Structures are given as C-alpha cells and as structure tokens.
Here is the input.
Amino acid sequence: MLCFFFTLLSGAQCLLYKNNLMRIRIIIILLALSSCSFAQINLAAGKALLQRIVPAQANQFEIASVKTEEGKDVFEIDYHNNRIVLRGSSGAAIASALYYYLNMYCHCQVTWNGTNLKLPAVLPKVAAKIRKTSPYAYRYYMNYCTFNYSMSWWDWPRWEKEIDWMALHGINMPLAITGEEYTWYLLYKEMGFTDEDLKDFFCGPSYFSWFWMGNLDGWGGPLPLNWMKTHFDLQQKIIARERALGMKPVLPAFTGHVPAAFKKKYPNAKLKTTNWTNGFADTYILDAEDPLFAEIGKKFLEKQTSLLGTDHLYSADTFNENEPPSDDSAFLSRLSARVYEGMRQADTAAIWVMQGWLFYSDRKFWKEPQTEALLKAVPDNKMLLLDLAAEIEPVWKRSAAFYGKPWVWNMLNNFGGNTNLFGRMETVATEPANALHDDKRGKLSGIGLTMEAIEQNPVMYELMMDNTWTADVIDLNKWLPQYVRNRYGTISQEALTAWNILRQTVYTVPADKYIRDGAESIIQGRPTFDSLTRWTKTKLNYNARDLLPAWDALIKAAGKCKNSDGFQFDLTDLTRQVLANYALPLQQQFAADYKNNDSIAFKKHSGQFIELIEDMDKLLATRKDFMLGPWISAARKWGITKPEKALYEMNAKDIITLWGDANCPLHEYACRQWSGLMNDFYKPRWQQFFGTVMQCMQQGKQLDLPAFQKGIAQWEWNWVNKRKDYPLLTTGNSVVVSVKLYNKYRKIIQAAF
Here is the structure.
C-alpha cells in the first residue's frame, strides 16, 4: 500500500518560504487592485503576447488602448506608419484584435490540435479601420471537470500556452481553481486540524473536480504536501497572467464540504452525509443553517484573498449530482442565502458564479418552484448563472431566463474527454445570437465554453468563440470555407467538400434524435456481445456510411494539404473515426458467430477485430494528440519521490479507464482512443475475452459473462497500478499511414455498412 504523510518544512525553510510567499502576495494584490497602472500592465502584457505568438513579426505591430463601450470590450485594427495598430479595451481585447487580423488577413489559425502561423515577411495592410464591440460582458471559460480530464498534469509552459489561447479567443472570465487545496490546508491547520485528520480528506490529483463539488473524499490520495505547494505556486502564475491580460479569474468559495474529522472537532456541528452513488464513500456536508457555515465561508475567502487577491467572482455549486434533503422552497431559499452570506461577509462586492448543471442533470427535482427558490434568495446583481450546456438543452428557456439573474450561454460539447468527432455546428452558429435577440432572454450577459475536456473537435471551439464579437447569426456557408483555408493554409476544393460532409454528419444532431454527446467505439467497452455498454455509447448521430465520402475527399486533398499541421490532425482524426465506427459491425459479426456456434468464423472475425485495434494504434502513434505516453510522463514528472511518481501514474491511468476502483460503475466514462491505450489496455482485454469464449465454444459451454467481467475488472485494476513507460515521440507520418489504412479498409468498410 502506498502510504506517506504530510512532511513539514524545517523552521529556516518555512521562514524563507513565507517571506517569498508574502512578496508574491503583495505583487498579486497590487496587480488585482491597482487601477492607476492597469493600462500599462495591459499594454505590456499585450506586447509580451505578441512576442510569444508572432515573434518574427512582432515589431510590425503597435499596441494601444481604447475605451470600453457601455461597459463592453472593444477592439480596433488600423494601419499607421507601416505598422498594424491593435487597440483594445483590455489585454484580451487586444489579443482578439490580433487573432482577428491573423484570421482575416493572414489566413492563420491557432488551435489545440493544429496551428498555422505561416505569416508573410511583410504583413498585409488594413485598408480601413476595423472596430468590433462584444455584445457580451462575460466570456466564460472552463468547467470544473476540465481541470482533471485535460489539465491535471499541466506545468507552467502548458498553462501559458492555454492562457494565450484564451486571450486570442476573447475569454475574460476563466475559472481558476488550481492549487485550491493548499489554501484549504492552511485554513484547516489554523483551525486546529492535524495532518492525520486531513490525510483521508484531500483526494489524488485526478479527482479534484469532484472533491471540490463534494462528491468524494480521499480517492487517489493521500495527497502529498509538495503537490499542494507547487500547485499553489502555479496558481499564482496563472492568475497573475490572466489578470495582466484583463481577465477576471473566478475563484472558489465554500459550499459546505468538510473533512470526516470535522465531527470529532466540532461535535455539535450540524453535519449530514451524502453519497454520489458512484462507488465512493459518504462525504460530509456542513448544514448551511449552522453558524459555522458562514464563519468558515468567510474565513476561507479572507485567507484566499490574502494569498491571491480577488476579482469578486466566486464559484460555488451546492448540489452537484446530489439531491438536496428537501424540495421545500423555503429550505432551498435559506440554503442559498447562507451560501451567499458566507461570501458577502468576507467580500461585500462578491458575485456568486453558479454552474447550472444541477438544473440539467436533475431536472426531475429542480422544477420551477425549486429553481426559483434557490435563485431568488440572492440579490440579482450578486449572482451569475452559467447555462452549462445550452447547445444541448437551454435551461434558460424553462426557468424564465433564471428569474432575473444575469446568465451566460455556454457550449459544453464534450464529456469525459472522449475521443470522437461530434458537435452541433448549426446550433452553435445560430443560437447565441438568437438568444441575444429573444424578448425572453432576461439578463443574458455572456457566452462561454464549459466542455469537460479540451483538445478535440477544434472546429467547434473556433466557431463558438467567433460569436464573441458579433450579435448576428454566423453564416456557416461563409464561415466554413474561411476556417478550412486558415487551417490548411491553402484553398482546396477537396478539403472543403470533406468539411461540408462533416458538417452534415458528425457535426449535426437531427432534431428527432436525443443524443447528448459523441459516441465511443465498442473497442473501448469492457468486452461484451452487446452493441454498447453503460459508458461506451455507440449510437451515432449520423449514418456511418455517410461519413465515407468525407474520408474519400480528405484523402484526395492530401496532395495539396499534407504539410499542414491542422490537416495532418484532421486526416488522422477522420481516419480514426471511420475505423472506430467499423469496429461495431465487426463486433456484431463475431457475436453472431458465437450465437451460431461457428468457431471458425468467430476466430476469423475476432482476429480481424484485434488487427483493427493494432492498426488504429499505429495510426494514433503518428500524433502526440492521441498518445498515452505524454499523459503518463507528465503525471510522473510532478513527483519528487518514487511513491509520489507511482501515485500520480496510478491517478493518470485510473481516470481514463476504471475511473475508481475495480468495481466503479463509471468505468470507461472518460475513455480515450490513444496509442498505447489501444495496444496495451483494450487489445489484451479483448484477447482475454476471445480466449475465454473460444474455450467455452470448444467445450460446449455457455460463456459466464458476469464471471469474466469480474475477473477482467481485477486485471484492469492491476493495469492501473502497474509501472510502465509508453512512447513519448511519434512514429510514422500521419498522412502516409492514413492513406495506407484507407487503401486497406475503404472497400471492406463500404461493404460492412
């Protein structure tokens, strides 16, 4: 068993650490509160961003400030003295001006999965001044889950890159919860809790999102103190950079989740247990009616503000996938009033930012009276609602636009970091503007991205954030050709043909189908003869056969586009999706073989299934976007001892496979199609299944599927805890491997569908 305890610094080390910490605190608070120097900070940050994004051409730009328009961000682009002039009312507005120029004049693009920054030596002139005003005061970014499904192992260089991406895309209100555990650790120590009291409270690095939302304690831990300190330092860098670029980070607040040891230290406290029902132990929630609730809420914000400063925006989710103990309206009103009161006592300017996920995920409980009661107990100007999945189900339409509260229209799009081509392109192009002009919109004040994970489907995020600077519906017939040209750095009719097919297939959800998110491949499911499992949903939002012409067209575009980073990713991703879809009819073939007791056919088709997995692994190994090795390596780098490295590796492997222990019902929720995972996890799992089935067929026995699944779950748990390195460098050329697999599978797949 891994077991290590919090280690305390020596007196001299502690004093040095505290002195350095105090200096950093002073700098951060000055950055947050000093209005007189804001313009200088803003311009300096804009110039630094230019050096990072376009270093060779940075001296051809000039940076300047411009006033907001009725409180809304503004940017301008002009040409003066042989320079491109970028003006903005904030660092994010200046960055948006840069990205608009790069998009519209240089045909460039910056995404997580492919970047084109091939600029001419002399930049194109701007004939007439361009001025854009955002209709949205808030441009929100991130979901609690994003911090774990994508960001668990990020270091400062990766965060710096992400903050630049945020600025370029106009984000001005990012969620900022990295290192939150250290603030709580300091506060609990001041309250008299010991390291032993807290050892089973803080979870492992992969599970903070659900820990902060009160769903679990301790899983994946115990958490080393070194992790807390290094990630608090990282948080300081993150929010300092975000503020320098004119963003207002949303920091966490107290929602009642406390350590199990709380009942020992405060025996008279009103505690209630709650259970997430996903295989984890009960957690303890302090009743909002207990005076300690507001007291702790105040102390936490005071401690956090002393360490990090504040922009007066605080995230707090009271019932994330946990029902309140009562649906009584008066009870719910008292509860939310007390949560807010804990914020107000520490910061009279506090604004409560609430994820609206509970209204979506538990709509049977949150009917109109309950929703209204929870919201109306807080002053309208002291709460901001996030309609977390507005492109799937706009909660604002069934809640009177959140009963007078300002709210943000968000696109969620991805759950668990699953690997699939998916999105609601038409909805995202039209509905933010439609909502903006709807008479029943209430106080619609922003748009945002609330995906559970990033680094997939870049087209959807580019499209969504292009709403930032317009109040009009986006015309996809004009937008998509521009996107393809910017992405590939050239005009290709074949590439555009492929994308028009993708628009009508993977990026469309028919109105007569309720499909929440993209499908997984049956390859990723725990072996079965069924066509799907609980978290391996294989139902597509399109006909798999209709995707093949897009594959044909993108293969044809390879001659012209093959040197484009974005094209290489897209061709890999499309080839992966076609092969992932093909796995299902192949699986149904060997399932029929078993039913017909045809062992020869079963051996043939199961062999083809294994070969398909191997081919997919080879394809995915051509792009770091699809590799397990960097994920594991990044996790282990945070450890400073062998036990820490092992703990982080376990966390990294567990979250994308079992999620919890061997019996966790969430297994495969966050599954990925990654090289290394395909060959080392999915393939041997299916090989064991095929071996067991063949043995049963030879002996004339029926497969005992529950017994097999129990055994394979234990094998999975062993895999999660096994020490192993995976390749960090790509192998092969994405275009060459894709063409090879196209030639091998195209006719076979056509016949299968």
About this structure: The chain has 28 helices and 17 strands. The radius of gyration is 26 Å.
